[in-house]
């Protein structure tokens, strides 16, 4: 059981994928007593959408072990998911103070900074995460998104290339690289990347959405609407109402 993806809309209606990570090491204890027990229990609650319960468990873990950097990091993820970026950054800061070599904390703080519009600060954090863990595919992907947001499409493509070289089945990186090619108006390469992302993950709503936009840019109205319908269906299944509504608006504009 794990969760790694958050999504947002880019300026051109393509969907950008930023990665976080919630990966419990074991099942929760039926009778949590130690800090690690509450940490695992918090992760399961986070994965099931119980943000309030997850924060309570992570806070209990921190009270039992004030030097528990992973619990600060995990609590920061919940704050980030619920839109409280300041609290998220505060928790990531504490995780980094406890362990200055915590690559995940730097990556996660980079995500929070990027979401707040501080792309330069985010890139510095991703740089540090990669310095600590040179084969950190997720950090390369996220830095690629930050570079794209700053208009450095060529630099972003290099980062997505690196993420894919580390993990050839990295559907998220293919979709994001497709967005960079789309930004360069290289629609053929963009569609090829979206195709690969969908081949790896056939229920990848964002990739269908993005391929639909690329097909629309090539005047393939029928293909675009078919892809956008698929995207809308998957976003609806995921209870992602904002992106579902945005895709439906795009379909109406194409008709």
From TrEMBL:
Repeat in keyword set: yes
GO biological process: receptor-mediated virion attachment to host cell
TPR repeat start-end pairs: 69-102, 103-136, 137-170, 171-204
Keyword Methyltransferase applies: no
Domain of life, per lineage: Bacteria
Gene3D superfamilies: Tetratricopeptide repeat domain
Entries under InterPro entries matching the protein: TPR-like_helical_dom_sf, TPR_rpt, Ycf3
Coiled-coil intervals, chain numbering: none
Keywords, ordered alphabetically: Repeat, TPR repeat
Cellular component terms per the entry's GO annotation: cell outer membrane
Stated name of the protein: TPR repeat
